[in-house]
Amino acid sequence: MIIGLTGGIGAGKSVVGGILAELGALVIDTDKVGHRVYAPGSEGWRRLVDAFGDSIVASDGTIDRKRLGAIVFDDPARRRALNAIVHPLIFQEVLHEIAERRAAGFAGHVVLEAPVLLEAKGTGLVDCIWLVTAPRRAIHERLAGSRDLTPDDIEARMAAQLSDDERRAHADVVIENDGDLAALRARVAAAWRTLEPPSA
Description:
Rossmann fold, alpha/beta
């Protein structure tokens, strides 16, 4: 199966993805795929520079994600333009990577770690959707400690996303990340056991 793993900022998707990898899944992080699809010299790089200008190019030739983010964060039209360029390229690369791994003999479950799976209309790529949620307080603590964001920064990022209630409407499995790591591992393992065994 291909599982779409999604959730809001700071919910703990990457931790859940790591647990699933330990359980035998092939985990594909769409953020990392995104970096590849607009690497210097790529089609994605050229299209982003054409759309947003040379100011988004860092001194080493890569796309400066912070500068690009500042341009699109408060401008819905420019954010849509960015997504229209990047999301199809990411999905194309993900399908290519899955096909390569299948051809190499991997027959297990694939987890597509995709924060904006729903917003990017990527549900057609997956067989089911797993949603990771966390209490607002825990999200604030996690992000303030790991990303040096102010409470206002965190609230702005959360407000720019779908709400957990909106995500729940699409989710087949909800993993509540509201305890310690041992509790999270137990919940992920329980959800994993509900899957059909991979075909040999």
